[in-house]
Automatic annotation (TrEMBL):
Belongs to the methyltransferase superfamily. METTL23 family. GO terms for molecular function: methyltransferase activity. This is MET23 protein. It comes from the Eukaryota. One of its GO terms (cellular component) is cytoplasm. Keywords: Methyltransferase, S-adenosyl-L-methionine, Transferase. Signal peptide: none annotated. It comes from Rynchops niger. It holds the Pfam family Methyltransf_16. One of its GO terms (biological process) is methylation. The keyword Transferase applies. Gene3D superfamilies: Vaccinia Virus protein VP39. The gene is Mettl23. InterPro entries: Methyltransf_16 (IPR019410), SAM-dependent_MTases_sf (IPR029063).
Amino acid sequence: LDSHYGTYVWPCAVVLAQYLWVHRRSLPGKRVLEVGAGVSLPGVVAAKCGAEVVLSDGEELPRCLQSCRRSCLANRLPHIPVLGLTWGRASPELLALPPVDIILGSDVFFDPKDFEDILITIYFLLEKNPHAQFWTTYQVRSADWSIEALLCKWKLKSILVPLHSFSADKEHLASSSLPGRHTIEMMIISLAQSDGT
């Protein structure tokens, strides 16, 4: 993966930020963790809407972590913690995370070789926080790529969220042309035995 990947706002981030904005009244006081945050648009929006946010990206990606920090400073949010977390690895930082209500991830399902490591991390966080949910947007890049079998393996369930339900089915979204003609999907992932509340 290009080391600059986490230094741009990608179309999925704009769509997830729109979902957060539409649900902004439910965010004050919620504990939110953004994984694979990069420039952190969804996490910044959540923080601006009153959520208690922690941003994270790969501990081996210092440029991405620096992008998180720069976004916080540019948006007058210097207090937001930025952590290095590597998907699939039980690091001291992952184990020490405070409780979370919502996990955010925009375009984290980018490279199929990472899909299981992402879901291992999400499963760990949801097991630790059984009522939490993982809100994620992803760009459909190949009809052959699927996480369905991995969701079953890790006892997770997903609900597809139609983009029109939060006014994100437009080429230009929130004054951004980024979503454009990309095929972007959103889903909410939770523990299979959880009621998802």
